[in-house]
């Protein structure tokens, strides 16, 4: 099933992808697409963390949600879908709402990459600190709501973000912890958000953000192999 991928990355790099163990925090619009892309890329082991259940409002942007799994656990439905695609992928589900204290106790030592797709700033901050302390690559997705242009997403350093109030708050939290954030990788939209009374969302922007996060894992793995 991975013949076309192997043509692009080569057999050795594909073998390295199969050896990876990835942690994904949050399975919403961004995290769900990142998960799907990694499953379809032959990643060997993935841990997915989310406490939530699918709701009708998720149907416009969350790839795992359908009319048939509303009110079902996101992580359990994600696992079912993934195993129908790649039955060899080892998937660990953690159905838990994380807070800052829970992250303190979370063992990340076995992971090669961490994908932060959650919307809790304190959890984001703590995972970044924890990953930096243990020298584990982490990439955090910032705001994708109220945006229309996936082509304005890109990976950059947290210090380089624009037009994102979430990034500003995250920098502030890290400063309070005396953490240098200059080299922290994020997925940032350089688009000015649409102004509306309540947070809205499209499908294309979180979908693209999740795909970018997955591509980061694949390309960084290839780069490490070449060093």
Model description:
The protein is an alpha/beta fold. The chain has a single domain (3-144, 198-226), classed as 3-Layer(aba) Sandwich (Rossmann fold). The chain contains eight helices and seven strands. The chain has helices spanning 3-9, 11-18, 29-39, 74-85, 100-105, 121-133, 165-176, 204-226; strands spanning 21-25, 45-49, 90-94, 113-116, 138-141, 153-157, 185-189. A seven-stranded mixed sheet has the order 3-2-1-4-5-7-6, sandwiched between helices. The longest helix has 23 residues, at 204-226.
Radius of gyration: 17 Å
Q: End-to-end distance, in Å? A: 28 Å
* Biggest sheet descriptor: 7 strands, mixed
The neighbouring-strand order within the major sheet is 3-2-1-4-5-7-6
Helix content: 40-55%
Rough outline:
globular
Q: What is the succession of H and E elements? A: HHEHEHEHEHEEHEH
CATH architecture descriptor text: 3-Layer(aba) Sandwich
Low-pLDDT regions? none
Q: How many beta strands in the DSSP annotation?
A: 7
User: What percentage of amino acids are in beta strands?
Assistant: 5-15%
- What is the CATH level 1 assignment? Alpha Beta
* Helix-strand makeup class: alpha/beta
Query: How confident is the prediction overall: mean pLDDT?
Result: 96
Number of domain modules? 1
**Structure annotation, total helices:** 8
Could you give me the name of the CATH homologous superfamily? NAD(P)-binding Rossmann-like Domain
Q: What is the fold named in CATH at topology level?
A: Rossmann fold
């Amino acid at each position: 099933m991975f013949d076309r991928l192997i043509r692009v990355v080569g057999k050795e790099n594909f073998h390295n992808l199969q050896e990876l163990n990835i942690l994904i925090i949050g399975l919403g619009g961004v995290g769900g697409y990142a998960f799907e892309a990694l499953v379809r890329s032959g990643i060997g082991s993935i841990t997915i963390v989310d406490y939530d259940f699918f709701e009708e409002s998720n149907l416009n942007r969350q790839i795992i949600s359908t009319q048939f799994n509303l009110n079902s656990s996101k992580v359990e439905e994600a696992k079912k879908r993934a195993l129908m695609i790649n039955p060899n992928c080892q998937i660990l589900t953690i159905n838990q709402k994380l807070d800052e204290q829970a992250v303190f106790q979370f063992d990340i030592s076995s992971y090669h990459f961490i994908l932060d797709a959650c919307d809790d700033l304190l959890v984001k901050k703590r995972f970044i600190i924890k990953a930096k302390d243990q020298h584990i690559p982490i990439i955090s997705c910032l705001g994708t709501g109220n945006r229309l242009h996936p082509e304005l997403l890109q990976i950059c350093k947290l210090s380089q973000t624009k037009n994102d109030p979430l990034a500003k708050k995250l920098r502030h939290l890290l400063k309070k912890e005396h953490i240098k954030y200059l080299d922290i990788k994020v997925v940032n939209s350089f688009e000015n958000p649409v102004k509306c009374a309540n947070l809205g969302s499209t499908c294309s922007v979180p979908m693209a953000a999740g795909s970018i996060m997955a591509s980061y894992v694949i390309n960084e793995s290839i780069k490490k192999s070449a060093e």
